[in-house]
């Protein structure tokens, strides 16, 4: 049965406008575009693309970029199938940017979530006892105040390495994207003279500072002593909390984002910037002294392990951020001496919590400095972007992500978005429209132009994910609880199928079809802070691209 997949939110008047048709036809087909009144406003023929490896479908492409008139209720028809309705308009992505960023307030730990600020999401403060948490027997013989921060994902743990890449990406958006410094997020700190995005990120930075141990290292994570079931609201969670051991990776994450935060907060709060920079320096020195303290893969009771036994990328990243903030020679030397500085760091996906070298590369390319060889750094980003653009152009759904063996990664939606970040930075560096168009068309996949005809962002599109794995946005299990907030990104197709429900329902799935919008499918449908962060970043770029 034929279908027409579109960006269900819509298309910018001056941006690319394409859709994907699933059909048995092998020859070009006629298509038509109708407006909100049902009038035919454009016609053409499809481009056959053959079998799409990521879905196993026979597909065609519709290119309706000739139509620039704005309006709502547009629809495409081909081979007897009609798309979901969509808009053509200039202001599509500012609301998505705002909602994607508002997500983080609802993830806060240690503070009441006020219902008048988030109607339907109010709840008492969770885990106030995090102000006095003991170390596990293998982690030390002291207690720390590690209150605050964001709950990491669908569980109620707090993980330094996932916090690190999330904070980096949000601060990177603030430093290098327009239109995020005046976001109105309706949070308790709004109106204090500091941009709301920085206010929200500070909630997490403060937590990261508290995770620094007396010796300067950072604890890898803290969470429940045992897994808690669904649904459980944070303030009703009875499990005791525990600090897990320090790790080199966590310590370098702290060094990187505290240094970056010091650079960005300097304009708004010099004392806080000084505090962050001091913590960053201490952490970096501690990591140099303890370079192989790895988080074990089997530390998975009550919280995810976030194991990582290669921290060369974290050393490179932390040195880069410290150099960009201080301009000191010791950090420049560390950057230039890193084997990753001249390596190709843009693999099938650009970066995530366990692969941070590209984060360093992007900041070194964009942030002004006197680092020798900066032209080569910029050229490497453009080369990475060219590779992702080639992947996207070859893909019938215009996805700038092609994992080896068509084995889609856990959190694949975030990897798609992070690859789009590289395209956007290449646009910043070159001004070339092809990179901008690549970002915009890549966002189509997230918002409905995919094999499932599903927007992966709650509240955006006609058909959207709304049962992401969470212990408190658990409407599927308890109708008195809400769905995730509008603007929440689902993890997306994951060929690994690590949860039992996915294994039972999706055995033998191909690529894009390895997804369930079910709260029990934690391997395909979780929500996490580090998946919403690239949604914020890319939505900010798209919101800038109206003209």
TrEMBL record:
InterPro entries, alphabetized: 6-hairpin_glycosidase_sf (IPR008928), 6hp_glycosidase-like_sf (IPR012341), Cellulase_Ig-like (IPR004197), Glyco_hydro_9 (IPR001701), Glyco_hydro_9_Asp/Glu_AS (IPR033126), Ig-like_fold (IPR013783), Ig_E-set (IPR014756)
Catalyzed reactions per annotation: Endohydrolysis of (1->4)-beta-D-glucosidic linkages in cellulose, lichenin and cereal beta-D-glucans
GO molecular function: cellulase activity
Entry annotated with the keyword Hydrolase: yes
CDD domains: E_set_Cellulase_N
Span of domain Cellulase Ig-like: 3-83
The EC number(s) this enzyme carries: 3.2.1.4
Keywords, comma-separated and alphabetical: Carbohydrate metabolism, Cellulose degradation, Glycosidase, Hydrolase, Polysaccharide degradation
Presence of the UniProt keyword Hydrolase in the record: yes
UniProt-listed Gene3D superfamilies: 1.50.10.10, Immunoglobulins (2.60.40.10)
Glycoside hydrolase family domain: residues covered: 93-538
Coiled coil, from the record: none
Active site per database record: 517, 526
One GO term of the biological process aspect: cellulose catabolic process
Family assignment from sequence similarity: Belongs to the glycosyl hydrolase 9 (cellulase E) family.
Protein name: Endoglucanase
Organism: Actinoplanes italicus
């Amino acid at each position: 049965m034929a279908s027409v997949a579109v960006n269900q939110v819509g298309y910018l008047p001056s941006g690319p406008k394409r859709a994907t048709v699933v059909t048995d036809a092998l020859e070009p087909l006629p298509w038509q575009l109708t407006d909100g009144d049902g009038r035919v406003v454009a016609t053409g023929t499809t481009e056959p693309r053959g079998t799409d490896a990521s879905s196993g479908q026979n597909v065609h492409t519709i290119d309706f970029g000739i139509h620039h008139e704005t309006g709502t209720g547009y629809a495409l028809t081909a081979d007897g199938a009609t798309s979901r309705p969509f808009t053509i308009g200039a202001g599509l992505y500012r609301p998505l940017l705002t909602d994607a960023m508002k997500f983080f307030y609802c993830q806060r730990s240690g503070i009441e979530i006020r219902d008048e600020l988030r109607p339907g999401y109010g709840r008492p403060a969770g885990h106030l006892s995090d102000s006095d948490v003991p170390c596990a027997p293998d982690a030390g013989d002291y207690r720390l105040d590690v209150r605050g921060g964001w709950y990491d994902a669908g569980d109620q743990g707090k993980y330094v390495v996932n916090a690190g890449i999330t904070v980096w990406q949000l601060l990177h958006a603030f430093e290098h994207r327009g239109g995020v410094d005046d976001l109105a997020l309706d949070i308790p700190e709004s109106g204090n003279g500091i941009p709301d995005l920085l206010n929200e990120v500070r909630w997490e930075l403060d937590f990261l500072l508290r995770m620094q141990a007396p010796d300067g290292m950072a604890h890898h994570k803290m969470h429940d002593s045992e897994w808690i079931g669904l649904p459980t609201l944070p303030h009703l969670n009875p499990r005791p909390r525990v600090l897990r051991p320090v790790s080199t990776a966590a310590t370098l994450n702290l060094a990187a984002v505290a240094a970056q935060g010091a650079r960005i907060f300097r304009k708004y709060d010099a004392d806080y910037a000084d505090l962050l920079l001091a913590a960053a320096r201490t952490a970096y020195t501690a990591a140099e002294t303890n370079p192989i303290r790895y988080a074990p893969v089997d530390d998975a009771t009550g919280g995810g392990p976030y194991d990582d036994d290669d921290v060369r990328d974290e050393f490179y990243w932390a040195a880069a951020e410290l150099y960009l903030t201080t301009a000191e020679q010791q950090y420049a030397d560390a950057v230039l001496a890193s084997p990753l500085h001249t390596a190709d760091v843009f693999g099938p996906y650009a970066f995530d919590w366990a692969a941070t070298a590209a984060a360093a590369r992007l900041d070194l390319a964009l942030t002004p400095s006197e680092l020798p060889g900066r032209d080569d750094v910029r050229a490497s980003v453009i080369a990475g972007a060219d590779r992702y653009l080639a992947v996207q152009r070859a893909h019938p759904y215009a996805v700038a992500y092609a994992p080896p063996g068509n084995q889609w990664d856990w959190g694949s939606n975030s990897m798609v978005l992070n690859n789009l970040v590289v395209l956007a930075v290449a646009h910043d560096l070159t001004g070339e429209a092809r990179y901008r168009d690549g970002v915009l068309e890549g966002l189509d996949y997230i918002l409905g132009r995919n094999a499932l005809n599903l927007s992966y962002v709650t509240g955006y599109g006609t058909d959207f994910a709304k049962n992401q794995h969470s212990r408190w946005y658990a409407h599927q299990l308890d109708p008195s609880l809400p769905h995730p907030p509008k603007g929440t990104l689902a993890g997306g197709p994951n060929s690994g199928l690590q949860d039992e429900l996915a294994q039972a329902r999706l055995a033998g799935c191909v690529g894009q079809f390895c997804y369930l919008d079910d709260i029990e499918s934690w391997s395909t449908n979780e929500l996490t802070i580090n998946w919403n962060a690239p949604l914020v970043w890319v939505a900010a770029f798209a919101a800038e691209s109206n003209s």
